[in-house]
Amino acid sequence: MIYVDTSVVVKALDDAHPGQAEAARKSLKTRVEKVVSELFMLEFSAAVSRRTDLLSAVSKSLSVPDSTVAMGYTIFATSKFDLKMLGTSSGPVSTPLGKLSPEVARAMGLAGTLKLRSLDLLHLSYAMVLREEGYPIEAFLTSDREFTKAEGALKQMGIGLQYAGE
Q1: What is the pLDDT of residue 166?
Q2: Domain housing 55
Q3: pTM for this structure?
Q4: CB 106 within 8 A of CB 90
Q5: What is the CATH number of the domain that holds 135?
């Protein structure tokens, strides 16, 4: 099972850089089950929403709000690349700050060491929490080189780091 970072799917659909898009699409053609989290859904929808040129044409012709078109693109992407969304089942974790989701608590614990952006930390946390819950996540697929900082933490969890196109 492979946890797919949003960056790979965004790159796979970016025709402005055909070589990178093809490499990302090739990485997503694996027969291994590919999973994403609800964070992917939010991040991909937000990325699409920033493409006003793309949304406006479709929303005008269909007379629907941009948010509906963004959701449609998100459904399209998950279907096209056969991505399955998994949710974590763990309840809130008690911390000195109060009760937090396990993903946020894990991300906060990694933040000081890894020095990654918040959404990247959350993607790592989702992959790790899902693995702890028994999902056989063997790899974390990304096109973002910043994740090199997380390779050791992933390896400790038994998760390999893979870059799209390699």
Answers
A1: 73
A2: 2-163
A3: 0.92
A4: no
A5: 3.40.50.1010
Lay out the sheet containing 160-163: strands in order across.
83-85, 34-36, 2-4, 139-142, 160-163
Which is nearest to 5 in space by CA: 149, 152, 120? Answer: 120
Distance CA 38, CA 129 (A): 13
How many domains would you assign to the chain?
Answer: 1
- Tens-place pLDDT, residues 45-86: 999 988 887 777 788 888 888 888 889 999 999 999 999 999
SS3 assignment for 92-144: CEEECCEEECHHHHHHHHHHHHHCCCHHHHHHHHHHHHHHHCCCCCCEEEECC
* Ranges of residues in the chain whose predicted pLDDT is under 70: none
